[in-house]
Amino acid sequence: MAPPSEDVQRRRIAQAAQDFESSFLSVMISQMFTGLEADGPFSGGSGEATFRSFLSDAMARQITRSGGVGLAAPVQAEMLKLQGLT
Known about the structure:
This protein is an all-alpha fold. It has helices at 6-32, 45-65, 72-82. The chain has three helices and no strands. The two termini are 24 Å apart. It has one domain. The longest helix has 27 residues, at 6-32.
């Protein structure tokens, strides 16, 4: 099997960098929810606490799709450099 073309490699690296930024942001966002109680008359109760990680992931992906916080670009540049595709 032939190695992927340079174009394919660049697309995969760009996607990996965005995925990394989303993952980083998800962890940061989940820290905002630490210590919050999921009780009270208008809360989601235990179900809310169970699905908080999904909310963090969704928020992180949306932030990344909207331009992110500037983490993906340097990660992508470093990955390209390591692959000799600069």
